[in-house]
Amino acid sequence: MMLCSRSLLLAAVMVSTAAAFSSSFTPSAQRVSTVCSTSNLSMKIFDWKRREADESALNDVDNTEFTFDNLRPAPGSRKRKNRKGRGISAGQGATCGFGMRGQKARAGRPTRPGFEGGQQPLYRRLPKFVGRPTGPGHTKTEYNIIKLDELNGAAAGETVNFDTLFEAGAITKSKLDIHKVVVGREDFTAKDITVQAHGFTKAARAAIEANGGTCQILKRTTGEVIEA
User: Where does the signal sequence lie (predicted)?
Assistant: First the structure.
């Protein structure tokens, strides 16, 4: 008899608890649904002068003529820059985001380009290939310079190039295999000569042709004449 009364009492408590839980949960669910249905998401306009401005006329594209005095950026597309060092409320005051001293807080660039904190940098980890330099300016073509005043010892009608000048003692040996003729400091007096090189400046070519000479361009790989 006592066991039966306990089971009945427990069942009554469970029924009352379920009813109270359902009655307390229903209004909150209704409130959530009503809030979601009435909420209207909008973009925040950072320009405080335009938050309350009436721009309905500008939004009417069909009936608005845009000129330089009424063009404006779209609301929310532009944001004011952070004013650093103007108080702690901005989040960038005092140290301006650079922290409490240290290398990165100093003026100027803290480290050189390519520095990786002391570990082996990328440009030293990559393999190096012979004949393919990787430094700055590696695409620049370097010529051995031959000046016009070094050709003054050539006789009329003679063909002059680097080999003949070196044999005559007019120039010294070169580490580079391609040669370019440029204007020297002294006057060019040789006449009616044929000059062979891998490149000529405009002034040097004009001076040679003015004295009745001829300029011939040599191929870099074989040394053959490819242009006269």
Answer: 1-20
Q: Which of 28-37, 71-80, 210-219 has the lowest mean pLDDT?
A: 28-37
Exposed/middle/buried for residue 208 (C-beta within 10 Å: 0-12, 13-18, 19+): buried
CA distance 42 to 44: 6
Which pLDDT score is estimated for 204?
Answer: 94
What is the C-alpha separation between 196 and 224, in angstroms, rounded? 10
pTM of the entire structure? 0.43
Largest Cα–Cα distance of the chain, in whole Å? Answer: 142
Tokens of residue 122, six digits = 């990328």
**CATH fold of 144-227:** Ribosomal Protein L15; Chain: K; domain 2 (3.100.10)
Other Cβ atoms within 10 Å of 120 Cβ, number: 8
Q: Is the pLDDT of residue 207 over 80?
A: yes
User: Which residues is 179 bridged to in the sheet?
Assistant: 144
Assigned token pair, 161: 């190039």
Dihedral class, residue 101 (left if φ above 0, else alpha if ψ from -120 to 50, else beta)? left
Q: Which tokens sit at 8? A: 């009945």
Strand order in the sheet with 214-218: 159-160, 194-197, 214-218, 225-227
Contact call for residues 197 and 217 (beta carbons, < 8 A): yes
pLDDT band for position 170 (50/70/90)?
very high
Q: pLDDT by residue (tens digit) across 119-144?
A: 999 989 988 887 776 666 677 788 99
Dihedral angle computed from the Cα positions of residues 194, 195, 200 and 206, in that order, rounded to the nearest 10 degrees: -40
